[in-house]
Design goal:
By secondary structure, the chain is an alpha/beta fold. It contains 17 helices and 16 strands. It is about 45% helix and about 15% strand. Strand 7, helix 5 and strand 8 form a beta-alpha-beta unit. Helix 1 (about 20-30) packs across helix 17 and helix 8 (about 210-220) crosses helix 12 (about 300-305).
Length: about 400
């Protein structure tokens, strides 16, 4: 199959971790398709404005064309007026500004189908381009894209995508339910042949000398072997539950001083790093227990996971928590707030410790429980690893998606 992939974000020089899971999916797709090309519409930023705002500077620095890991990446610029008509820019305007370059690529490549990630950021462009080229277009609901008010301009973009895409995949059953709400129909009436729950999945963890890596990373971080390292990986923001996690760590460490915490994922230009640092500064005892580290290369993530004793996941909402799945795939025991996708992963079989959503007190109790029991950590980690490797592998799930797209192409 010759596949065109449309995504709202993809790693580039000035923002190397933006859309990292999109890139991992593309790597898997590239192994099973004859051709894969990626289009990432980006806001056009006049050079003068790029001097003043870090986010605009990152957009301006993104090259229009490059080859990453053997895959051609195109980043056509689309004019955007900040704070004005945002839904227009990711839908009709994006189509207007991108159709010529995509049309030219189609004349040379002859794409068989389109696959987009994020119904709001890319779904509108995907189905319009699919209609323009007369090829099937699929989309993946990834999380916040379907959690928009139906009456809003963004909601209308997503509704049109749901109605016009040839097939839609959903990271979790919760997202399928949200899509049904947008369409104002019952879940039972959603056409199952066009709306499928299929997590995108994660890559197989690399082979690492765990004992040596654990020792090296903990030494670098200044963490002793007898300390209990709580690790969190992700964007530093309130909606990721960073303050609930800090409260839980503070409470747990007050009872067990060997508990320490490392937060990986700081990007000050794009998150709440400065506010979190100020929060730590105002709480000196907590500041001694917590390290806030910059976002890192994906390969480095696996090393941090080797060093961890417990993985903490405190997000308010997710499509499917890939960072948690990666942690579980390495055998790290995990604690998470019981939001819907977490309950889908746990599924009543004890793959991780589930805490009532946003309850820092209960989260602290769970930390203390696992910190006191290496045996339970080992047991929990092994159960979680087995489940993730069975159900959440990216190559297996991308194969399922491509198989369905190929069927639609053949019809």
């Amino acid at each position: 199959m010759k596949l065109l992939v449309i995504v709202p974000t993809y790693p580039h020089t000035r923002h190397p971790f933006s859309g990292i899971f999109n890139e991992r999916c593309v790597k898997a797709l590239d192994k099973m398709c004859e051709t894969v090309e990626v289009f990432v519409p980006r806001p056009y930023v006049p050079p003068f404005f790029a001097l003043f705002v870090s986010r605009w500077k990152a957009y301006a620095a993104a090259v229009q064309y490059e080859v990453r890991n053997g895959v051609a990446i195109y980043r056509p610029a689309t004019p955007v007026v900040p704070r004005l008509g945002g839904a227009l820019w990711v839908d009709r305007s994006a189509f207007f500004w991108c159709r010529r370059i995509i049309g030219k690529r189609h004349l040379r490549v002859k794409f068989d189908a389109i696959l987009s990630f994020d119904l709001l950021g890319a779904g509108g462009l995907a189905w319009r381009i699919g209609r323009y080229l007369s090829i099937p277009a699929g989309g993946w609901a990834t999380g916040g894209d379907v959690r928009v008010p139906a009456s809003s301009s963004y909601g209308r973009v997503v509704i049109r995508a749901l109605q016009n895409l040839s097939i839609v995949f959903y990271q979790s059953r919760e997202l399928l339910q949200e899509a049904a709400k947008l369409l104002r129909i019952s879940l039972e009436r959603m056409p199952y042949e066009r709306h499928l729950v299929l997590p995108r999945g994660i890559a197989v963890p690399p082979v690492i000398q765990k004992r040596e890596t654990r020792k090296r990373v903990r030494t670098t971080l200044g963490i002793a072997e007898d300390q209990v390292l709580i690790l969190s990986i992700g964007r530093i923001s309130r909606e990721k539950g960073v303050y609930e996690l800090l409260q839980a760590v503070s409470s747990a460490a007050a009872q067990n001083p060997k508990i320490v915490c490392v937060l990986v994922g700081s990007l000050p230009a794009f998150d709440e790093t400065l506010a979190v640092r100020e929060h730590l500064r105002q709480n000196p005892n907590l500041e001694k227990q917590v390290q806030l580290l910059s976002a890192c290369d994906p390969e480095k993530v696996w090393e941090y996971l080797c060093a961890a004793d417990i993985f903490a996941f405190t997000s308010y909402h997710e499509g499917m928590p890939n960072s948690l799945l990666e942690a579980m795939a390495t055998g790290a025991p995990a604690i998470a707030f019981g939001i819907p996708p977490i309950l889908e992963i746990e599924d009543g079989v004890g793959t991780l410790l589930v805490v009532p959503p946003f309850n820092a007190t209960e989260f602290a109790k769970a930390i203390l429980r696992l910190a006191a029991s290496p045996c339970e950590r080992s047991r929990l980690g092994e159960i979680g690893r087995t489940r993730v490797m069975d159900r959440y592998m990216v190559e297996k799930n991308m194969t399922a998606a491509i198989t369905r797209l190929a069927q639609i192409h053949a019809e």
